[in-house]
Amino acid sequence: MNRHPPLKAESTPWENLEREQYQSFFSLIPDLACICSADGYFSYLNPAWEETLGYTKEELLSRCFSEFVHPDDKALTSVRMRQRARFVNHYRCRDGSYRWFEWNTAPNPDGTETFAIAREMNDLVQAQDALLVHQEQLRLLAIELSVVEERERRRIASELHDEIGQTLALAKIRLHDNLCNEQVTTGCARRVQHVSELVEKTIQAVRTLTFQISPPLLYEVGLKAAVEWLSEQFEAEHGLKIVIDSRESRMRLGEELSSTLYHVVRELLVNVVKHAGARTVTIRLRQMAHRVELTVKDDGGGFEIPAGAERSGGFGLFNIRQRIQHLGGVVKIVAEPGHGVEVDLTVPVGKRTANRQAKKQEKG
Fold first, then answer.
1. Hey, what long-range contacts does 360-363 have (CB within 8 A, 24 or more apart)?
2. Which phi and psi (to 5°) does residue 88 adopt?
3. CATH code assigned to 220-364
4. Residues 168, 199 contacting (CB under 8 angstroms)
5. DSSP symbols for 117-148
6. Are 328 and 352 in contact (CB under 8 A)?
7. To the nearest whole percent, how much of the chain has pLDDT over 90?
8. 13-120 in CATH: which number?
9. Closest Cα partner for 294 from 282, 305, 277?
């Protein structure tokens, strides 16, 4: 079907001049400029259409504009072309490929025509796609760093306990044996006793450091016991009041999930000490049939979450979010200046966790 805009039988010289100026102006626009009639056909196109899409002017004018629109975008485009609007769609080129365009449309007062300009945004879309790829790579890197960090924590804790801890314990026994020797003078005994006390302090420091890095309680007794021990340490060192709200006697979770949640609690408590100025922290732990819920809430200064922001609070909270998402969970942050911060985590457990743990044991 050939469809061209109707031409007037006669045109005055002034109208011809006006039309030439009108077309000259539109030909200078590098973007795709057009006038579309209410029946869906183009009544005017500037040269950029032919240059960008590869069609001839006759091909474009003889077909309804919707024929060039990607099927996924037809409904949206049909509505927006009759409105003053700004939208994005992709248009088919003569070679069959599609290009992305950002449209600005404005119908005339009686709705018989729509004036539109479309700017190609293929480069922008490609840049956005590349950004998404880099963000995914960053997410995977953050997860891998967390896994490596936990592996190193357990290795260092094991070496502290097996090497340094046992060596210090043996040194203390030898010192005690010397104290029991009748040939030791009183002055020498006092010095040996002093050294023995220093060794005992060092043993306690190594034990505390071992627990902080990777607490044996976490793997021997469970998450709740490890969090209780951690809370006691923070209360003693930083003067916080930490309330643990948990009805669970022992939470049955895989090692990866237990370790992740433990270090999340520790990281959140560190954030409270550094930034919140809080006096009380509440830690709530719940294990359901198919999920575990963790909430850490403080009564500190809080902060403002920007509207629409998915990540807030710096790399610490970003890192927590990545680790929890890796386990299939979600993180919700509720914060308001002067009203503290509440971080809610929900992570699935059950078959998914069991399968993950079984695979780890097979590799081990």
1. 360/255, 360/256
2. -125, 140
3. 3.30.565.10
4. yes
5. EEEE-HHHHHHHHHHHHHHHHHHHHHHHHHHH
6. yes
7. 26
8. 3.30.450.20
9. 282
Tell me the DSSP string of 320-332. HHHHHHHTT-EEE
Distances (CA, A) of 52 to 58, 92, 118, 128, 352: 15, 10, 11, 21, 50
* pTM recorded for the entire structure: 0.53
In the numeric block, the tokens 């010289």 are attached to 13
Cβ-based neighbours of 252, under 8 Å, separated by 6 or more: 222, 287
Q: Given CA atoms 237, 243, 249, 250 in this order, what sign does their dihedral have? A: negative
Model confidence over 315-364: pLDDT tens digits?
457 778 888 888 889 999 988 888 889 999 999 986 444 444 434 444 44
Q: Which among 48, 49, 114 has a CA at the least distance from the CA of 87?
A: 114
288 token code pair: 């359901």
Tokens standing for residue 218: 């976490």
Q: Collect all residues with Cβ–Cβ distance below 8 Å to 106 and sequence separation of at least 6.
A: 84, 114, 115, 116
